[in-house]
Amino acid sequence: MVFTDRRGGVSRGPYESLNLGILTDDDQESVSQNRRQLAAALGCDTERVAMGWQVHGHEILEWREPPRNGGFADAGAELRKVDGHTTTLTGVPLLVLVADCMPVALVGSGRVAMLHCGWRGLAAGILEKGLELFDEPPRAVLGPCIGACCYEVGEEVLVEFDDLQGVANGRMLSLSLVAQQKLLARGVTKIESFPLCTSCRPDLFFSHRRDDGVTGRQAGLVWLT
Predict the structure, then answer these.
(1) What is the DSSP string of 11-26?
(2) What is the pLDDT of residues 145-157, one digit of tens each?
(3) pLDDT (tens digit per residue) in 16-49
(4) Closest-CA residue to 93 (of 112, 110, 115)
(5) 203-211 long-range contacts, CB within 8 A, separation 24+
């Protein structure tokens, strides 16, 4: 699995430099070149990278064959509106784009999943749906996301997680702690996370909140070999 940062691409300005988000005001050829560079670094074909149109929901798409004219390789391709992906195929990287939300990789015997976990997706149960795909509790790896140091939310968000203990300090919410408690409650004991806040590290990460929406996207990917 891989969690990218913003370094190593060709984009300029607020999208410097490895912006992978085509639905930004970045130059589309620069984004396409960034995507090709990432695929080459991973040793895979851009055509085999599976992704969707993220809508902060809880739907998960099962990939039973590699993408055909997929959106990672072909800007403007029609994409399914999903926030998670799973497969039992080898050599098909599953990708989600993030810029403060948390990418979560689930890895089990013969199956992987990659989930886009913002507060809406977590509240809607995307983690729980992902875990249902596995016969046994998988390993979970939580990628970089905005931390409780920077993520102030309203009461309408906090109430979604009022059954969880210690995930918020006042109005400051930890997406990572929300995910960890949900995973532990369902028997997942192998959990890894990155203690880096996307908002605190402009040198490493794009951040939608820090940059008032004018920013790029990094990615989380997982695949079977």
Answers:
(1) --GGG-S----SSSSS
(2) 999 999 999 999 9
(3) 999 999 999 999 999 999 999 999 999 999 999 9
(4) 112
(5) 204/5, 204/6, 204/7, 204/144, 205/5, 205/6, 205/99, 205/144, 206/6, 206/15, 206/19, 206/99, 207/99, 207/100, 207/146, 208/99, 208/100, 209/100, 209/146, 209/150, 209/151, 210/100, 210/150, 211/14
Give residue-wise pLDDT tens across range 152-202. 999 999 999 999 999 999 999 999 999 999 999 999 999 999 989 999 999
CA-based max dimension of the chain: 46
Taking the domain 2-222, which CATH number applies? Answer: 3.60.140.10
What is the value of pTM for the model shown? 0.97
